[in-house]
Design brief:
Belongs to the relA/spoT family. The chain is globular and about 95 Å long. About 5% of the residues have low confidence. The chain has 28 helices and 20 strands. The chain is α+β, with helices and mostly antiparallel strands and 722 residues long. Helices cover 47% and strands 16% of the residues. Helix 1 packs parallel to helix 3 and helix 3 packs antiparallel against helix 4. The longest helix has 35 residues. It folds into 5 domains: 189 residues, Hypothetical protein af1432, CATH 1.10.3210.10; 145 residues, Beta Polymerase, domain 2, CATH 3.30.460.10; 79 residues, no CATH class; 58 residues, no CATH class; 75 residues, 2-Layer Sandwich (Alpha-Beta Plaits).
């Protein structure tokens, strides 16, 4: 376990005359507050804040941040208050602790809404002081390192949240080491089959490639020496998550990934970087389209470096990253290296000047702050945040020569909204490099873009199919929602009046007399119009609303037998919701499982209200979910799932040898996995690809079966298909 002197010694290496007493007092207070509490691993609870504080010291953060790391769980998990923290350790520490603390004492309609509000609070707090996020990232990193002691379902939920929010946030802050470790840990728990096979393959490749790495390093060191350039060269194998992403995006197997090795060259000056780039290109042939100059145009997280891929010795593709020592520090530690807590002058108290806002430093953070104010639904905020955080950037120019940074894959409509919301709303056409192009055209680095507007133009729902930025999606959805809400209210009145005539209720008069107002709070709505819109969007059936209205008006339950129609109503035909599912706010509804992602018990899921086909259940990470209308998404969770087979798609890559198909099928049968269908393909390299649709009880059974199949000799891969 980390000891307090290891933390204080670490702080002393980068701060002159540090306030070690503050850290010591925070340690004593935290140890007393958590005394007697143990973690799931069996370790004393104090080991967690100690590890968090050590990670913060390793990032070379100030004493207040390290102290906050030691205290970050005291307000949430003990009787300690923020006021007590402020009285004992000062407002600086108290503000950071308060920003990190979850808002668990508030009541929310679901865990998903609570999670969204926690993230929203974190975003607001970090806009004031970025150290809040630094502590939270250190907290999440240590929790991910010890996730093995949690139940499998909890592991996947935490890993999914980390992959969706915290790893991208670490990337945005330039915390490369934190980001890559979080991503690899997420892969370990979200796709254990992929993680295990990649780790094994990379270990074999690393053992075989060490001589090659040493050889390239020797060539580069000799090149630097001959040209009187001082620098350090080292090679590394890319981390597992980035390899997996490339395999998925390009449909490659591990054996088809040719640029697994990357070399970094750390130099003394900016001019040396470009000099070395020229030497590399003169020595080896560069791969077209693989050169990027992040020195001239830095990334949003302040990252600067020259990237190039060349055909190196023995025809191997190798990537070089060339940067100065200062750039390397920022690349590894991001904001922790760039942002020093000494803004108030030499000899003054460490900290921040009053009123300084970190949102002003980071354009992306300011953008999040802008559009989050427009989103009242926390789940929509989470959806937009995921969209904003994940993207790589492209850099394009306005007609005046100004640079606009947009996510990779952004279109001309995204560019229009980046200029101004009004320009986006009135966008009628676009020109790229002087040529008129369709609005869905994807932008590339260096494009010059001009937007053609029309005062009569309004946003189109079709734009949602191709826009990439959260700002564009938010504005378009706001307009579409306003129009569709009006239609939904009109539809609800028609449906309610029709049903009301059958059961003897004058709906128009009930609305006018204020009877509907009495139902608003009962259905968790803000107004009568909100309730009507929910009926129009099929969240509540007209009959359900009118049954409650009848009871409110007459003081007795509505007897439907007196008003039975000749034709059975659709809801009478509907099958009850599937056993083992808890669907928030909906009952007696037809449920089906999406074939695009085949969700299994034990993994995060969401529901989508379809038109005429009930509720469709999707995996939370299904690629189709991002294209759904937010108002038709439902919170769904597994609840004692029934023992029945669920379909899943798997892929097995093996050597093309006699008897392999039989061995694989027998192994699946031993694991009680039924094969529903399959197709097979032989490759020219002597391997075969076997794609199966199988039936399993839950996620654990699937991954156990894949692990057994992978253990068979001559099997190279056994994966679940998304």
């Amino acid at each position: 376990m980390i000891r307090i002197n290891e933390i204080t010694d670490k702080v002393s290496t980068y701060i002159d005359n540090p306030d070690l007493d503050l850290i010591q007092r925070a340690y004593v207070f935290s140890a007393q507050a958590h005394d007697g509490v143990v973690r799931r691993s069996g370790e004393p609870y104090i080991s967690h804040p100690m590890n968090v504080a050590y990670l913060l010291a390793d990032m070379q953060l100030d004493e207040a941040t390290v102290a906050a790391g030691l205290l970050h769980d005291t307000v949430e998990d003990t009787d300690t208050t923020v006021d007590e923290i402020e009285e004992m350790f000062g407002s600086d520490v108290a503000d950071i602790v308060d920003g990190v603390t979850k808002i668990s004492q508030m009541d929310f309609e679901s865990k998903a809404v609570q999670q969204a509000e926690n993230i929203r609070k974190l975003i607001l707090a970090m806009a004031e002081d970025i150290r809040v996020l630094m502590v939270k990232l250190a907290d999440r990193l240590h929790n991910m390192r010890t996730l093995e002691f949690m139940k499998p379902v909890k592991q996947r939920l935490i890993a999914q949240e980390t992959q969706d929010i915290y790893a991208p946030l670490a990337n945005r802050l330039g915390l490369h080491r934190v980001k890559t470790e979080l991503e690899d840990l997420c892969l370990r728990y979200l796709k254990p089959d992929v993680f295990g096979q990649l780790r094994e393959a990379v270990a074999e490749h690393r053992a075989a490639g060490e001589q090659y790495i040493d050889r390239v390093i020797d060539i580069m060191q000799d090149m630097l020496q001959k040209n009187r350039l001082k620098g350090v060269v080292y090679g590394r194998t890319k981390h597992l998550h980035s390899i997996h992403v490339k395999m998925e995006q390009q449909g490659l197997t591990f054996d088809e990934i040719y640029d697994l090795i990357a070399f970094r060259i750390i130099l003394k000056s900016l001019k040396d970087c470009y000099a070395v780039l020229g030497l590399i290109h003169a020595t080896w042939r560069p791969v077209p389209g693989r050169f990027k100059d992040y020195i001239s145009i830095p990334k949003a997280n302040m990252y600067q470096s020259l990237h190039t891929t060349v055909i190196g010795p023995d025809g191997e593709r190798i990537e070089f990253q060339i940067r100065t020592e200062e750039m390397h520090q920022i690349a590894e530690y991001g904001v922790a290296a760039h942002w020093q807590y000494k803004e108030v002058g030499k000899g003054a108290k460490r900290g921040r000047t009053a009123g300084t806002r970190d949102a002003e430093r980071y354009t992306w953070l300011k953008q999040i702050m802008d559009w989050q104010r427009e989103l009242s639904d926390p789940r929509e905020f989470m959806s937009s945040l995921r969209l904003e955080m994940f993207q790589e950037e492209v850099y394009v120019f306005t007609p005046n020569g100004d640079i606009k940074e947009l996510p990779d894959g952004a279109t001309t409509v995204d560019f229009a909204y980046a200029i101004h919301s009004e320009v986006g709303d009135k966008c009628a056409g676009a020109k790229i490099n002087g040529r008129i192009v369709p609005l869905h055209t994807t932008l590339k680095n260096g494009d010059s873009v001009e937007i053609i507007t029309d005062k009569n133009r309004v946003p189109s729902r079709d734009w949602l199919k191709f826009v990439k930025t959260a700002k564009a999606r938010t504005r378009i959805k706001h307009y579409v929602r306003t129009v569709e809400r009006s239609r939904a209210i009109s539809l609800a009145k028609e449906l309610l009046e029709k049903e009301g005539r059958r059961v003897g209720i004058n709906v128009q008069k009930a609305i006018k007399d204020g009877e509907f107002l009495k139902l608003v709070s009962e259905f968790n709505c803000g107004s009568v119009d909100d309730l009507l819109a929910q009926v129009g969007f099929s969240r509540f059936t007209p009959r359900k609303v009118l049954k409650r209205l009848y009871a409110v008006m007459h003081g007795e339950a509505l007897d439907l037998r007196k008003h039975r129609s000749k034709e059975p109503e659709p809801e009478q035909k509907a099958k009850p919701k599937a056993d083992g599912l808890n669907i928030s706010g909906v009952d007696n509804v037809l449920v089906r499982f999406a074939s695009c992602c085949n969700p299994l018990p034990g993994e995060p899921i969401v529901g989508y209200i379809t038109r005429g086909r009930g509720v469709t259940i999707h995996r939370a990470d299904c690629h189709n979910v991002n294209n759904f209308e937010d108002e038709r998404l439902l919170q769904v969770s597994w609840e004692g799932a029934e023992e029945k087979p669920y379909p899943a798609k798997i892929k097995v890559k093996c050597l093309n040898k006699p008897g392999m198909l039989g061995k694989i099928c027998n192994m699946l049968a031993e694991m009680e996995v039924n094969i529903d269908s399959g197709d097979f393909e032989s490759k020219v390299d002597g391997t075969s690809i076997l794609n199966f649709t199988v039936e399993v009880r839950d996620l654990n059974q699937l991954y156990s079966a894949l692990a057994k199949v992978k253990a068979l000799k001559a099997v190279k891969e056994a994966l679940r298909l998304s």
